[in-house]
Write a structure and sequence with these properties.
By secondary structure, the protein is of the alpha+beta class. 54% of the residues lie in helices and 12% in strands. It is elongated and about 70 Å long. Bound molecules: zinc ion.
Length: 220
């Protein structure tokens, strides 16, 4: 689908400018106030989408498989991520239970689903009406998707428990380490400005009347 250029306003000073695709690695800034208006990437969609899909698959492995198996005498206790939340609830440590649930389960899952639901249609050359909403939710929750914190706390617990119980690493531990890597790479590959541009351009094309009221843009 060929996208025609459209006009945008600087988010800081409302100067109108014509949007054009930027070469890879180039940044555009507002000539009046210097606010960064966009960063050029060859393809702002494919890499974050691939990383989000990989993270989602790893996320399900991490959530469902045991991270650790503790052997106390002849009793084996598998420790899953969700089990850890329930253990904290049982111990009446509600704020900590909520923190683990929010940063390790709810925020990452919502972020990944929001990104995939927004980027998948863009990758196919279109967008859904809900695309900007999904993207806004994903961006709002991304800072809370801190799977690395829980990973570190599991490693710390492992170190403390090693004299008390026999500990075996579960299958999910490798997936967890990989998830920390893919989530970090996802943050690095996500450039919101060019993605907003695509979402808004496709929206403008679907509702072209909205462009009639624009003034003629000032040349930088
Ligand atoms: Zn400006």
């Amino acid at each position: 689908m060929q996208i025609e250029p459209a006009f945008s306003a600087c988010p800081a000073c409302d100067l109108l400018f014509r949007r054009r695709p930027l070469p890879h690695g180039m940044a555009a800034s507002c000539p009046r106030c210097g606010t960064t208006l966009g960063v050029g990437t060859d393809d702002p969609v494919s890499r974050p989408l691939a990383l989000a899909l990989a993270s989602l698959i790893l996320f399900f492995v991490v959530s469902l498989e045991p991270l650790l198996v503790l052997r106390l005498g002849d009793r084996e206790v598998p420790a899953t991520l969700f089990g850890a939340v329930l253990t904290l609830v049982d111990a009446k440590m509600y704020p900590l239970a909520f923190l683990v649930f929010w940063t390790s389960l709810l925020a990452p899952l919502t972020t990944l689903l929001g990104l995939i639901l927004c980027l998948w249609p863009l990758r196919q050359g279109g967008t859904s009406r809900l695309g900007p909403g999904f993207f806004r939710i994903a961006l709002a929750l991304l800072p809370w998707a801190l799977v690395g914190i829980y990973f570190l706390s599991v490693l710390l617990a492992l170190f403390k428990l090693k004299d008390l119980a026999e500990i075996h690493l579960g299958a999910a531990m490798v997936a967890f380490a990989a998830l920390v890597v893919t989530m970090t790479a996802l943050r690095g590959s996500l450039h919101p400005e060019p993605l907003w541009e695509r979402l808004e351009l496709l929206n403008d094309l679907e509702h072209p009347d909205g462009l009639d009221n624009l003034e003629h843009p000032k040349r930088p």
